[in-house]
Amino acid sequence: MLTLNNVRKTFNRGTVNEKVALAGISLHLDRGEFVTVIGGNGAGKSTMLNSIAGVFPIDSGTIVLGGDDISRLPEHARAKYLGRVFQDPMRGTAADMQIDENLAMAARRGKTRTLRWGITKAEHESYASELAKLGLGLETRLSDKVGLLSGGQRQALTLLMATLQRPDLLLLDEHTAALDPKTAAKVLELTEQIVIEEGLTTLMVTHNMHDAIRLGNRLIMMADGKVIYDVRGEEKAHLHRADLMAKFEEAAGEEFSNDRMLLG
User: Fold this and answer.
1) Which one of 1, 35, 56, 264 has the minimum C-beta count within 10 Å?
2) What homologous superfamily does CATH list for 2-263?
3) pTM more than 0.70
């Protein structure tokens, strides 16, 4: 479903602030894989996701999604293939629009617009049914403005919107980092439920070692813009946090000292 071949990205090239974010990263994801991505600050995790989404152009290499080379496609042209949930709960929804209007926008992503009535009765019923699965009571609040929702409710809604059309690839960029522990746990539970039920190919960046180990069928660790550890199946199922720290030190040749990941 996704292949990155020797992808490179350097910011501020030729200046004192030059930063190599992706150093020839190569990665292949099969259809339906749920991959967690972990690594220290500046490892290149978010840059990799943004490169796939087309937020900025890559310097070299190729990105192939579903058999199509999307390396040079602009961000808006990739949107119909991708579902994204950001770290900031405010980014994935339109606060001044109603819940049903946000869902309608997500349902129409990548489709031709017409002059038909905005949201049909059948669509309302469908949205209410999908919202009920979240278990947050939002199915009775379809006409509420999204800006009235809590951060956790908005993030759950964003997750639903991102997967409403069953994207070729779901990108989750630390999508629970800004939430309190209880709310984060609920959003992760919903994430796992939706990804498994829909069989979505998923890349989830996280700083939480426990979540990275527990979720998904595959884990990759990044450092200095490269994949330094890739584990799946039974080997991943038996991983512990100490194992990840040891693997990092072995592969990166330095002591693991990222406080955010350790505390996570």
Assistant:
1) 56
2) P-loop containing nucleotide triphosphate hydrolases (3.40.50.300)
3) yes
